[in-house]
């Protein structure tokens, strides 16, 4: 089966996975170097060992296919002995959130795979990410620093929607109906992600050397704060208080443990995930007003991600994915 050439989608997806795992490993290197709590360090080290194995598996596929191994990120992109930029709880929250993103991404990539070994690869990637997500989640819950989503009364009977105003976010006499549990879950996940985003952008802006990147991270912080405000208000309208206990502290260090290139890539990845999660939220929402709010948020995230891509290209930080052959150039005797 391995003799069958990689399809374009398989090649593009494992190239992307290699970038992500390379970045994640360098973040983990810094986190492990500065870890002081044995249980947290064990989780971080386990994640590092898993992702090292997975990165090597991708390298073997590239080599067997006769493809060049991407540069991705190197030792130049991390300063392991730099002072802490975030506290240990934030490190675990960051890895938890990244694992959540990768679970969804690998599910998508798995559905775009055809070769048996590539399908098995994504099965392993998904299983590994789920394990890391579970370990980090339980650690943070046990530490008392990760609030769970709101609890609502259990239904005691089956009910059906009787008025089309349900989809407009209204009830009888034009009053706004409460969020249902599907909508609460989607709002809560956006809230959780953006609270982490504010702290991440705060830290990145604090240590970035490139002036464009520094301004970009500050802009990202304000964008995340705006989304937190919108989502908190939606919960409050349903008489649900937004969680007040959130993990993670940004230290006062101004020495960056990461390169601007890697921080920008990280931010771009989170932005793309934000677009995807908000589109899912909009698709599964039964309230028209919620759909409109998520639509506006997606527009802002799209503009943010687009501008970030331009900064990455401007500074020569964007590694080009594999491409199809340019037949027009080849017909003219020109190379790529």
What's this, in brief?
The protein has 336 residues and is mostly helical. It has nine helices and no strands.
Could you characterize what this model shows?
The protein has 336 residues and is mainly α. Helices cover 64% and strands 0% of the residues. The chain contains nine helices and no strands. The longest helix has 28 residues, at 38-65.
Number of separate helices: 9
- CATH fold label of the largest domain: Ferritin
Instruction: Profile the largest sheet.
Output: none
**Strand content of the residues, in percent?**
under 5%
CATH first level of the largest domain: which class? Mainly Alpha
Give, in order, the helices and strands.
HHHHHHHHH
Q: Helix fraction?
A: 55-70%
What CATH architecture of the largest domain do you see? Up-down Bundle
Mean pLDDT: 90
Cα-atom Rg, whole angstroms? 22 Å
Pairing-aware structural class of the strands and helices? mainly alpha
N-to-C CA distance: 30 Å
Question: At the fourth CATH level, what is the homologous superfamily of the largest domain?
Answer: Ferritin, core subunit, four-helix bundle
Number of domains: 2
The strand count comes to 0
Q: Shape from CA axes?
A: globular
**Which residue ranges are poorly predicted, with pLDDT under 50 across at least 5 consecutive positions?**
none
